[in-house]
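Chain X:
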Amino acid sequence: MSATVNIQHFLPHRKPMLMVDLILELDKEKVRTVFEILPENIFVENGYFAEVGLIENAAQTCSSIVAQDYFDKSDLQNKDKKDVIGFISSIKTLKVYSLPKTGEKIETLATLISSYVTEFYTTCTMKCQTFCGGEFLMECEINLFIKEKEDEKG
């Protein structure tokens, strides 16, 4: 996908937990997102975006690779209102080198290492790197669990 997509259409997260603004690039194996660090963000401490915010940004970025299989590719606005849930099942490695300041934009790149897909859920291992203005901020390898949210009526 080459069109810029508002990730809010595809994640269950809403403010204050939404840590990605836009998907810049997305295919079956990699994704690139951008996020502006605003002063009112819940993970801003003393003018810096905390480590936990970088981890949540990475998880939300990574989930878009696997979660895209749950949506119609031609519906970039998610008009069908499908809802996918997911969580970090483990953090295999994590190295934080620097923290971005408020007002800065971070760019996060994620690559699919492996996935296991069943009829009911998907698990995957992802490699992720975060940058700010060319500076390398963080790298990690995480496992995610993702599935379509069940209809609350049934």
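Chain Y:
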Amino acid sequence: MRKVFATATEALADVLRDGMTILSGGFGLSGVPMSLIEAIRSSGVRDLTIVSNNAGTDGVGLGMLLESRQVRRMISSYVGENATFARQYLAGELEIEFNPQGTLAERIRAGGAGIPAFFTATGFGTAVAEGKEKREFDGRHFVMERGIVGDLAIVHAWKGDTEGNLVYRKTARNFNPIMATAARMTVAEVEHLVQPGDIDGDHVVTPGIFVKRIVVLDHVEKRIEQRTVRKRA
């Protein structure tokens, strides 16, 4: 199977459709699959459900899809850095399903592991638990959460080989590994492409069996979401 594609647009050409569910790796602006998001925007697909820890920032990352109004619904944990998201949500133009961050991560991991649902104590007695099954185990109350499986997962990796084995770098690892396992089609953008055997097997984070297509980036712009510096002495 040929996994390496020349561009993000080519890799997604016969995959994208209106109304699909897309899992996007990244946390803030770290490890975000920017080129794949740009290709989704350029394709013009609409009514998307996006599963992501957050919504990027205005005009950057998933913020691009919000500005072009291609997103109908978001399943997220933290969206506080995007004013466009806030305006659309408050105007009733965007649906949102908020999740505690650990619950969101476990829902995605469960989906990738073939687990349809699980129970967690997080959120019991709050709005998060409304409309969900509750159970008591060993004297504690739990809420049932469903695993998440998407139509497409887009991820960013530091290094990958032509078989799709991926390695992530530092905090850019974040949600990418679990996203890669929890979709029917996973497309990865990589900063460095190597040959099979060039990555130590013990260092592989995402095995190539999960990755169907790969795009090699010719340029990577690593933005800083919030710059914090000390005053000069």
